[in-house]
Amino acid sequence: MSGTTASNEKKEIARYRSVPDLFRVLCWVASVLTVVILAWIGYEIFSQAWPAIKKFGLNFITGTAWTPGRQVFGVLPFLIGTAASSVIALLIAFPLGISIAIFLSEDFLPVSIRQAIRFVVELLASIPSVVYGLWGIFVVVPLVQQYGTILSKYLGFIPLFEGPAFGNSLLTASIVLALMVLPTITAISRNAFVSTPATLREGAYALGATRWEAILGVIFPAAAPGVVAATILAFGRAMGETMAVAMLIGNSPRLTWSLLSPSGTLAGLLANQFAEADGMQINALMYAALLLVILTLGVNMLGEVVLRYTQKRTAGIN
Amino acid sequence: MKKIASTLVVLAALTVSGQLASAETTLQGAGASFPAPFYQRWAQDFNKQHPDIQINYQSNGSGAGVKQFTQGLVDFGASDAAITDEEIAKVPKGAVMIPATAGSIVLAYNLPGVSELKLSRAVYAGIFLGTITKWNDPQIVKSNPGVKLPDLGIKVCSRADGSGTTFVFTKHLSAISPEFKEKVGTDKAVSWPTGMSGKGNDGVTALVQQNPGAIGYVEYGYAQNNKLPMASLENKSGKFVKPTLESGTATLASVQLPANLRIWPEDPAGAEDYPIATFTWLLLYKTYDNADKLKALKEFITYGLTAGQATAPSLGYIPLPKEVVSKCQAALDSIK
User: What is the pLDDT of residue B22?
Assistant: First the structure.
């Protein structure tokens, strides 16, 4: 009796295995599709950009004038604007984000309040870009206009603060960008702080370290790679941000040293000009899109690699 | 946002039309954002008289309008910059341009305490070239006796996107200033030597509102609706003219339309003429395959050219002069 049941069971299993597993197939299709779509996007951008790449080559990257009517296309000001606005945003968001992350990962406050604060900070990530833009227009633009004028009056001899101070400027866009990337920095570095092994923390206290000595001397160095990853990912997000920046930065294609002058970004250039573009301008915009994709993809990949590396390194200690 | 809104409108229109009679004709149009409120008003009023004809106009910019029209995706297009013969050659069914309305381009400014401002030809060309940078520049002071001009930097606001408004404005500046022609030139998108840029007429209007010391070029209607002060400009005969519907009408009255109805009064000579005014065009195919559509389109545009013109002033547009209307009507009759 038992022998026949067992052989029946075996037959069942064999039959089951001979048919492809539907769930598996679906998963395969979905994951292959994702890769294919990414490759497709890449191919499409590249093939549309090709005429411009062939015609302008590297001069496209070093050129400082963008004049579609005269078939002159150079994106250096936009490249620099993209980098500058993201770097300044990080300069503002980094100290703020790290402080919040430390504050939320140590036992300064009861857990319930920490959870609430963490929730609110992470909620910042869910606000639509255009709302940030509007908020920037109504709050940050007048502030930068007002204080920028004073700043340029007294510090105008420094090229960074040269007047006239525009409300829609590099500084305005950077301030709003800083708020937008704050959740990225806070969430990822908080995770890094929280996952520092308890043994390290306890060891530091056992050796007589004060709380600040423990945080700065032991926990922060242990979590540093995670913090670096957080910063890189935030940088990637800041570079690709489009709507809010296009609404605030003033979209000027000129190179300038002043934080209080309008500037432009690659993403903003695409958003502003694509609908009305024709002929070579479309190819040039695609070339700019290609550069933007390479930049953001590169930065994000770097961030992911650093994050992986950290997780592996801290995984051993416990 | 605009796209989503217009899609919703289209969807709503489709649902409503589905419930009503099935023998309904829908006309799709797309293009210039400057006359969009006017066309949408036409469509509304016309629909009240002809409930069986639905007109959807998508305001997505002159460039996009011309593109979609050329590809045959719409029943009619609209553009602030009349299309060139080259562009017409690309349209398989052939194209006819009809001026539908006109508007002035004004220099709106934001100077606290200054409600009247006169700018001479040399001055406003200089401002947009970036050679005049302060509001209390002696050249500006000279034409504004009695006005207290602040020691404030001039912030020039321009369009970041390609636009018919930019085309008309740079065409005028190139006509009055050889330096502007050489350094910047005439185009739908140019590289401005100074200032900041926003997207669309509304974007520039917002920039002017947000920045004290700002000056920007926008369509008359946008400045008027947002209650921005507008500068009086010196015209060819040396007179400072305030941008009003009357001065815009005077400009258009002196224009002689050629047979293809394509003209820009780039520097009108009349004493009362406001210097920067332009037509905006509807783009129609020479032939339509669908007889119902053709009939509906002709009725709609005839309405727009006649009764529809009456609403122009209330929306900030200049009604077409009579001679222009009759020429447009003749062009419309040529469509089959």
Answer: 45
Per-residue pLDDT tens over the stretch B185-202? 888 888 899 999 998 888
Check A275 against B63: CB less than 8 A apart: yes
CB–CB contact A276 B161 (8 Å): yes
Ramachandran assignment for A208, one of left (phi > 0), alpha (psi -120 to 50 degrees), beta (any other): left
Peptide bond into A164 cis (omega under 30): yes
**Distant-in-sequence, close-in-space partners of A224: CB < 8 Å, separation ≥ 6:** none
- What is the per-residue pLDDT across B83-140, written as a single tens digit (0 to 9) for each? 888 888 888 888 889 999 888 999 999 999 898 999 999 999 999 999 999 999 999 9
CA A106, chain centre distance (Å): 26
**Helix count and strand count (H, E) for chain B:** 14, 11
Under 8 Å CB-to-CB from B169, ≥6 apart: which residues?
A: B105, B217, B276
* Residue of A71, A150, A168 to mutate for B, most B C-beta atoms under 10 A: A168
- CB-CB contact of B103 with B316 (8 Å): yes
- The percentage of chain B sitting over the pLDDT mark of 90, rounded to a whole number, equals 34
Q: Does A74 touch chain B (CB under 8 A)?
A: no
Element (H, E) at B97: strand B95-109
The model carries a pTM of 0.82
* Token pair 């910063």 in the structure block, residue: A231
